[in-house]
Amino acid sequence: MEAVLLDSLAWIMALCAALVAGIYAAFSGFIMRSLATLDTASAIAAMNAINTVILKSSFMPLFFGSTIVALLMVLVGLWQWGEPGAHMAFVGGGIYVVGMFIVTAAGNVPLNNALAKAGGDGEEAARIWAHYLERWTRWNTRRTFASLATLVACIEVISR
Questions:
Q1: Nearest Cα to 2, choosing from 91, 81, 92, 88?
Q2: Which of 19, 33, 102, 157 has most Cβ atoms within 10 angstroms of its Cβ?
Q3: 86-110 residues labelled b (16+ CB within 10 A) or e (exposed)
Q4: Angle at which helices 86-96 and 122-158 pack, to 10 degrees?
Q5: Please, are residues 108 and 143 in contact by the beta-carbon 8 Å criterion?
Q6: Phi/psi-derived region of residue 122, left when phi > 0, alpha when psi is between -120 and 50, beta in every other case
Q7: Burial of 140 by CB count in 10 Å (0-12 exposed, 13-18 middle, 19+ buried)?
Q8: pLDDT of 20-44, one tens digit each?
Q9: Structural contact between residues 99 and 149, judged by C-beta atoms closer than 8 angstroms
């Protein structure tokens, strides 16, 4: 029964981590680079629109639900510590919580909030946008790699 719980969590987490990694990879790989080609006012307006829409999208249940699954993986990994796959479940869940959720809360969200307050034109807006673009993309890339690392850990758990 305990192996079924760990396997189920690992499968769910693997799917969630793969989806989240794909979304984040798209942003770092080409969405942010595309926004960088726009004039400052258009880029800020587009990113603010994305940030508004995403908060009301199906991404939010995926974001919070996957974090809950990752926390459960940490707990089940601790609970089943001596069992095969438990260490990787603990590590994978921990990487996701820290590298995806906490990075988002500490890095990306404050930048999003600052961008939402920025005016769309002028020298100050250009400075804010340049800072945002570089920093947000760097934080986002970390989230991408953390999600991918979690996916690899889940595959290890499943294939034990």
A1: 81
A2: 157
A3: bbbbbbbbbbbbebbbebbeebbee
A4: 170
A5: yes
A6: left
A7: buried
A8: 999 999 999 999 999 999 999 999 9
A9: yes
- Which residue, among 10, 19, 24, has the nearest Cα to 70 in the 3D structure? 10
Distance from the Cα of residue 146 to its chain's centroid: 8
Each domain of the chain, given as residue ranges in start order, spans 2-158
- What end-to-end distance do the CA atoms of the chain give, in Å? 16
Q: Amino acid identity of 12?
A: I
Count of CB atoms situated within 10 Å of the CB of 37: 8
pTM: 0.93
Hunting for tokens 């960088």 — which residue is that? 36
pLDDT tens for each residue of 79-118: 999 999 999 999 999 999 999 999 999 999 999 999 999 8
